[in-house]
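Progress against Task 2.4 (sequence-to-structure conversion) is shown through the following example record, which the project officer requested during the mid-term review.
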Amino acid sequence: MSPRGRQSGYGYRGRADTPDHPDITRSPAPRKDPVDADALITAAVAAVRGSDVRDAERKLDLLVVGGGPAGVGDDGGPAAVDAALRDRLVAALARLWPRGWQPTDVARIVTRRLGARPGRLLADALAADRAARPGPVPQWWDDQLTSLDARFRGDDDAGRAGREGTDRITALRDGVEMLALLTGLPPVAVLRPPPGGSGGATGSGPSGSRVLDRVRALLAKAESTTFPAEAEAFTGKAQELIARHSLEQALVEATAAHPDRPGGIRIGTDAPYAGAKALLVQEVATANRCESVWSDDLGFATVLGFPADLAAVELLHTSLLVQATAAMLRGRRERRGGGRRTRAYDEAFLHAFAQRIGERLRAATEEASRQATAAAGPDRLLPVLAARSDAVRERMDTLFPGATRARLNVRDVEGWQSGTAAADRASLAGDAPANRPLPGRR
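Structure tokens generated for the chain above:
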């Protein structure tokens, strides 16, 4: 060993050999540099995106430590990391809004890919984004935040973790994974201008009319009753009101000074049976003069149409999905010869249910159109409906110029037959009384 002593990772041990260096029995404390919280977060996000699990764990550990105990020095340690991560999440959200994403869209994909706990963390980031906006925002934006329970609670990250029953380490890991997801999301169709934006489609929010309030009440009764005949009556009446209301709105908008333009909504199509759910969206959309595009990788279908029609699609799809699922579960119990249902059976059942429901809804819409044409006159209604269809199609071609059609395969005959029979029993729209005038017609 050299007379200067052996070198260690923290200095020198042993006896110094010059008069300027007295005996050193322990290393001096290393100088504490300020924490570069942003660099730690960037490294952790890159590691999470990579394939090296051990490297990701090391980077996350560094992020948890945050350069040292909180309160030591002027850098704030972990507190600086927490604040920087929150700021990075808010900045990532702000970049998504001009790219077509809305709060409910982001919440849906975060929950779908990362789970419910990160979804709750996202609500805090959404609230912080909202608090950082000095100017007014559209009412529909605040409505979405309210539905997600996105209430701003200040900068108390530790308090947030405690409220959610989550320790800081778990919260940091969730935050890093969410940041990696948000920064990698692709642009989507801009359905409404975001806060601070301009242009885009208007009027794409659900209608608050009394007619649709009655429809909501009828569908709620249809879903809650245990008697199939009663559910059929409630749902059939709801469809009748929807069809007549849509046609009445078309006539009113035709003479309005500032008529509505086609807008859009997004409807989740999560697993299992995402393809069957997307088919149900498409069938309901087509029957209500809307267009639908399924983004399988993102887990939603985009529906384009006029406001009253979009509200009808959203309400009917929600109710029909509940009814289809219940019918499928009943079919499992009633299967010929007993036994456990297979995935192929379930998919075939839901595909058949969606296709048959679509046929019946389209027939109901055509019947309502014939009645409305007779009441209003063909020269008045038919050009209006044609112009609205052209406007929706033009919007579709603008937002989705590369959309293609895909074929869904069905592999279980029994499931298809059972699903078709269940859709027939739903009796959604075929019982509307004939020759009944449109609401409000004199």
